[in-house]
Amino acid sequence: MFLGLDSSTQSLSALVIDPASGTIVREVSVNFGSALPAYRSPSGFIPGGKDGEVHADPRMWMEAIDLVFAQLADGFDLSQITAVACSGQQHGSLYFDETLESRLASLKASESLEAQLSGALTRATAPIWMDTSTGAECAEIAAAVGGNAEVCRKSGSIAVERFTGPQIRRFFKQDPAAYERTDVIHLVSSFVGSVLAGKSIAIDHGDGAGMNLLNLQTLDWDDALLDATAPNLRAKLPPAAAGTTLAGFVSEYFVEKFGMSPDCQVVLSTGDNPSSLVGMGATAPGTIVISLGTSDTFFAAMEKPVTDPQGFGHVFGNPAGGFMSLICFRNGSLAREALRDAFGLDWSAFDKDGLALTPAGNEGRRMLPFFGPEITPRRDFDAPVRNFPADTPAPVQVRALLEGQFLNMRLHSQWIGEKAGLIRLTGGASQNDGIAQLVANIFQAPVERFAIANGAGLGAALRAAHACGHDLARLSADFCKPAAGSRLEPDTALAPLYEQALGEFAALLKA
Ligand code: ADP
Ligand code: XUL
Fold first, then answer.
1. Does the C-beta of 8 come closer than 6 Å to ligand 2?
2. What is the 8-class DSSP label of residue 295?
3. 214 touches 240 (CB < 8 A)
4. What is the CATH number of domain 2-274?
């Protein structure tokens, strides 16, 4: 059996698969907000950060590892686990002094992880992906290496506020002495993997590419980017390595405390988006994943690292080899919920019956679907921009919002240069048939829905099995199955209409 862990923004979840039977045999989860209220982080981060700062308390993540393993081991024999791999929210970073290695190597089962590891932290809090505080640092890094086009050519993304490099630079500028004391910087994913392995493990090319530090051609840390970020940084980073690397055996701590086998292997960790690519069975080009969660994300495998000339999209390593695109749309469910609540609607207004009240294409009424700041395309503002009069009937606005969101997604994914062959839809809103059909029609590709809620956790477990010799195509066929009857075909008669709508939407964006 194989164990996958996913340390996401709001929870740490664990999932065990049995490849012999092709089933998920165990799933548990620790919600940071409700299980660890002492950290006062109801949504997994410390509320009220100033100037765009969004940080989390790393001690909360340490405590959650003990809690999730206690749940896992309760009535379940963890010695059956052959290998474990982790996934984590991308970009977030933890900072430790030189005592980390000896602490990891000598963890005592009689004490908690938090008690034994938190003393090594050189930065009390960890910046996470929601942080937007590093605008100045992004500009400095870009200027130092010759512009954002160069940062993007090297690292697959322009300098981005939430990416780890700019966050490291901010720490170096704010507290140079603490930066100097820092011996090792981990991502959330590599940190959890390091705890399991009882030693610092390498950072994989999937999560590593979310740092503005990894050179996608050499797959090593880039000296110019390192120098532009902070002094002596290479010495403070774990090496970069392929995600299929076996990092070693699980630490004695987990053997003694939770009954894991001393022969259990730890596979390198990766970010939640690369991990979801595996969990959604989309590691080969042609299948696109659209996740409709709090934000909407669009990602797909790609062979060569093609970059977004506009600088909105990102390129990460694909855990199965090659690369992947990732585009993040901040106004996903956030905007859909805002419109739903403004009109006092429920989700049925966004479903088949609600959408049937208006014609496809909405008679040319196009909405800018940005109710709050947006990443793709970039829009900085605090108050919603509404280009529709408030008295426009609800059904017209609902259709306008949804068509605007998916036209925006189609427009801003064209740089990838591949037409969608198949779309795998996941996330809370994917269960909505009206929204799913609209996605099929706007992209003119069939849509399949998945029952799995935790694609990143499943991806981690599949990666663990793959690294130990299981065939990934076989694992995908067994575990990454669309829900029965969930497939929707595009209405091909609407192709010209949405082609025209795409042009109209692009013009509205420029206006
Ligand atoms: P995340 O993992 O980002 O927290 P989820 O993928 O769990 O988010 O999605 C949760 C969101 O899905 C909710 O915030 C809600 O807006 C949306 N959602 C749930 N059901 C529906 C539905 N039937 N139609 C549209 N959106 C829905
Ligand atoms: C990706 C990103 C988010 C986090 C959330 O660039 O910032 O998707 O990985 O978990």
1. yes
2. S
3. yes
4. 3.30.420.40
Residue 226 has pLDDT above 90, yes or no: yes
Burial of 363 (0-12, 13-18, 19+ CB in 10 A): exposed
What is the per-residue pLDDT for 62? Answer: 98
pLDDT of residue 383: 64
pLDDT at 71: 98
Nearest to 69 by CA among 16, 138, 9, 125: 16
Whether the predicted pLDDT of 452 surpasses 90: no
Give the containing element (helix H, strand E) for 96.
strand 93-96
pLDDT at 47 over 70: yes
**Residues in CB range of 347: below 8 A, 6 or more apart:** 340, 432
Residue 44, by phi and psi: left (phi above 0), alpha (psi -120 to 50) or beta? left
What is the Å distance from ligand 2's center to 358 Cα? 34
Based on its alpha-carbon atoms, the radius of gyration of the chain, rounded to whole angstroms, reads 22
Residue nearest to atom 27 of ligand 1 (CA): 429
Fold of 281-451+481-511: Nucleotidyltransferase; domain 5 (3.30.420)
Which helix (H) or strand (E) element contains residue 14? strand 11-18
| Domain 281-451+481-511 in the same topology as domain 2-274 | yes
Mutate to test the pocket of ligand 1, among 276, 333, 352, 371 (most ligand atoms within 8 A of CB): 333
Residue 201, pLDDT > 90, answer: yes
**Integer Cα distance of 144 and 169 in angstroms:** 13
Contact in structure between 11 and 29 (CB atoms under 8 Å) = yes
Cα 377–chain centre separation:
18
- Tell whether ligand 2 has an atom less than 6 A from the beta carbon of residue 463: no
The confidence score (pLDDT) of residue 314 equals 97
Q: What is the pLDDT of residues 255-314, one digit of tens each?
A: 999 999 999 999 999 999 999 999 999 999 999 999 998 889 999 999 888 999 899 999
Residue closest via CA to ligand 2's atom 10 equals 89
Residue ranges per domain, the chain? Answer: 2-274, 281-451+481-511
Nearest to residue 189, comparing CAs of 164, 170, 166?
Answer: 164
pTM: 0.93
Which atom of ligand 2 is found nearest the CA of 88?
10
Q: Which residues pair with 327 in a beta bridge?
A: 298
Count the neighbouring beta carbons within 10 Å of the beta carbon of residue 473.
Answer: 13
